[in-house]
Design brief:
With 273 residues, the chain is mainly α. The protein folds into 2 domains: 53 residues, no CATH class; 182 residues, no CATH class. 52% of the residues lie in helices and 7% in strands. The protein is built from 8 helices and 6 strands; from the N terminus they run αββαβαααβαββαα. The strands form 3 sheets. A two-stranded antiparallel ribbon has the order 1-2. Strands 3-4 form a two-stranded parallel ribbon. Helix 3 packs antiparallel against helix 5, helix 4 crosses helix 5 and helix 5 packs antiparallel against helix 7. The protein is globular, with a radius of gyration of 37 Å.
């Protein structure tokens, strides 16, 4: 046998490679002559290579770890156990989550609140008190005067709501809804909380802040009274009084929102007995 033939015999079997479905196979010489071993750098890499070699599939890619955070605007005193409040609810019950409001949603909320039962009741009470005391706006004390006061009260209430909720709230990214503390807080705490909400507001992210939306909105509404109040009330002093009385009315309204649920339950229980 020539040297070339001997070399061909020794090389050809060791270099012969054939492919089979889903696997890579090597045709090798008897174990005494040559053995091909796939080596890996680490145990993890060895496992991955073994998976590829045996079934042709790649290992699953690492999945990112995500965390669930409360929805912007959600109010969670303790843990929210009451569910999710309606999207356009003006008062969020204690223990309930509030849905996030976009700028457009706030515009809708403002217009929905124009003729709410609470706003209508507040205007009637305010107009009646002003009529009995012959206070501003000074239309007199006859029947016509009460109708004029009621109309002026509705105009002022509407302008306050639109300026505060539909205009300033989207601009300043504030949440003008009232978040009820509920009976888990002390009575005094709830009273103080409600009374200070005209001054202390809430951002869309749920942080306490100066209630600029309400303060600016009510100031604008007070200035607008010059266009429909009697001439005697069309001055800065009366505008300042209107602004101050409006803040007081807002505090009373927030207190009603805070305690209305317990009040209604007490009335229901009284009639039930």
């Amino acid at each position: 046998m020539s040297a070339g033939a001997a070399a061909e015999e020794s090389v050809a079997p060791d270099s012969a490679v054939s492919a089979t479905p889903n696997a890579l196979a090597f045709t090798v010489a008897p174990p005494a002559r040559f053995v091909f071993l796939a080596t890996t750098v680490s145990t993890n890499e060895s496992s991955s290579v073994a998976n590829v070699a045996t079934d042709g599939t790649l290992p699953d890619a690492p999945q990112p770890v995500t965390s669930v955070s409360p929805e912007p605007g959600a109010f969670l005193p303790g843990n929210s156990t009451g569910g999710t409040a309606p999207k356009y609810a003006q008062a969020i019950p204690s223990g309930w989550s509030a849905q996030h409001l976009s700028g457009g949603d706030k515009v809708v909320l403002g217009f929905r609140n124009l003729f709410s039962p609470t706003a209508l009741a507040g205007t009637i009470i305010g107009s009646g008190y002003s009529h009995l005391t012959d206070g501003q706006p000074n239309y007199g004390v006859d029947g016509t005067a009460f109708a004029q006061r009621f109309g002026a009260g509705m105009a002022r209430s509407a302008s306050q709501t639109i300026f505060t909720t539909s205009i300033m709230s989207p601009i300043l990214h504030q949440d003008t809804r009232y978040y009820v503390l509920g009976p888990q807080a002390s009575f005094l705490h709830r009273v103080v909380y409600a009374a200070t909400r005209p001054l202390v507001g809430r951002t869309d992210g749920g942080h306490a802040t100066i209630n600029a939306s309400l303060l600016i909105g009510y100031a604008g509404a007070a200035a607008l009274t010059r266009t429909y109040y009697p001439p005697i009330n069309q001055n800065f002093t009366d505008e300042a009084r209107t602004f101050g009385s409006s803040l007081g009315g807002a505090a009373i309204g927030f207190a009603f929102d805070e305690f209305s649920d317990q009040l209604l339950k007490a009335i229901h229980m009284h009639h039930g007995n």
